[in-house]
Amino acid sequence: MSLGGLPVVDNDLVIAGLLSPGAITCIGTVEAEVLVRNQGTQPVNGFELQGTFNGQDVPTLAFNDTLAAGETLNVVLPLGTADIGTNTYSITVRLPGNTQDGFPDNDTYEGQLSLVATDYWTLVLNTDFFAGEIDWTVTDDADNILMRSPIEGYCFGQNTYTTGECIPSGCYVLTFSDTAGDGMCSIDAGDDGICDTG
Fold it and tell me: Which residue(s) pair with 45 in the sheet?
């Protein structure tokens, strides 16, 4: 029996995709952020991820999470140290004890990524209460945006946000803006850009 061309079995774990890494990275130590889905009709009590990175075995990791039928879970599998240029990987999901599920044809995800010699930039932002008023961008000399604050904006309230991206070597402009015009202040009673403390 099948549903939409997919086999219907009790136990069917599948790697639905990777959230990271993408096709290009500048970070030498690579971790795969893996989406594991239970495509079977019964709950699965735990699973294992194993794989290879550039032909070398990756240590198997066991996860004790229970996945209900149709449920997807995001987990991390360290792959290893990448080489400059093209790197290949293969990731396989198994039931506990390295047991194949009822449909092993969809258990393995293969891909490749390129390690490029660029810088990894990190921006750590400590916001005031009015974080939703803050917007920022990193642009190149052609005004292309290479990094930016979230499109949906920040939540109101003091918090710390960390954003990182691979950025090619060069000169860039970091621009901050504040829709209220008072900068990153909780209170600017004089509207002079100087934060009032109380």
Answer: 66
